[in-house]
Amino acid sequence: MRTAVTILLLVAFSATLYAAAPAPPAGWKDGYVMANGIRIHYWRTGGDKPVIIMAHGSSDDGLCWTNLAAEFTAAYDIVMYDARGHGLTDPPKADDPADAQAEDLAALIQALNITKPIVMGHSMGSSATAWFAAKYPDVPRAVILEDPNLATRRPASVVPDPEARRKSILEGNNRTWDEIYAGCLKNQAMWGVSECAYWTESKRRHHPLTASGTAAMRPAMQELLPKIAAPTLILKADAQGELRQQNDAAAKLLPKGTLVHITGAGHNVRRENKAMTIAEMKKFLAGL
Questions:
Q1: End-to-end Cα separation, the chain, in angstroms
Q2: Residues of the domain holding 77
């Protein structure tokens, strides 16, 4: 009972801290490029440093990386872009191929004239990152995948209905900022107020046309991992028993890779054990 009351008080107090998403850190700049037939929006921390490109998960946007990216700006120039149909990037089209997000990433790198970037992706972004790295093995310097789906491709019977998914996304767009933010604080209290604030903003910009169903057409990770030539780090949600063994077996398909299960973390690895995520990333990056 005491714990429940504490959580409710925390939510009530935290709700007063933000009335909208916090501004990005001082000095970060945003811009647009035309790439792969669409206008892509991105944020960039800047500086003459090695580049890390971060590809967010479904319904997030580029600024959802802010709290992690801020830990690495001393040594890296970080590009956080909005995937098509997210943030301020153009929505997808009905005839988009299954590899559109992978090609968006490749075209963004070319448009920004970036050489040998480190590319990191979470969830949906990890799928795009892995497919990009498999198609263009000589482009990335290194790859980091945050909780990619290492299972085989989902059967058609469990793929969400596009129309129902579009309806759900639109309903989320029409919720108030305060409603979404309060829900995050209640259900994801361990994330913290800043993380919830950036996350909330992304939900209101998530375009319903992203519910196209092309995710089921992407190659399974087992097909992509053997083709990724760059050093690769997989940061996986905590798992035990058979699932942990399956994850470790999939990671062995990487020519130059390692997998770390992040203690106590679910799908949102960096949000649920930020300290361990940062430590593992720094160890990996130092070895490049």
A1: 49
A2: 2-286
User: Helix or strand or coil: residue 167?
Assistant: helix
For range 29-36, the mean pLDDT: 98
d(CA 35, CA 43): 15
Q: How confident is the model at residue 94 (pLDDT cuts 50, 70, 90)?
A: confident
pLDDT digits (tens, 9 = 90+) for 14-30: 445 677 778 899 999 99
Give Cβ neighbours of residue 114 (< 8 Å, ≥ 6 apart): 51, 53, 79
Which residue's structure tokens are 């580029």? 62
Residue 187 CB: number of other CB atoms within 10 A?
Answer: 11
Tens of pLDDT, residue by residue over 147-159, are 999 986 655 556 6
The tally of domains found in the chain comes to 1
pTM over 0.85: yes
CATH number for the domain harbouring residue 6: 3.40.50.1820
CA distances from 36 to 31, 61, 275 (A): 16, 19, 36
Pairing state between β 142-146 and 232-237: parallel
CA distance 15 to 9: 10
Question: What average pLDDT does range 193-198 have in this prediction?
Answer: 96
The DSSP bridge pattern shows strands 77-81 and 38-44 to be: antiparallel
Amino acid making up residue 224? L
Coil, helix or strand at residue 233: strand
The Cα 200–Cα 215 span in angstroms is 24
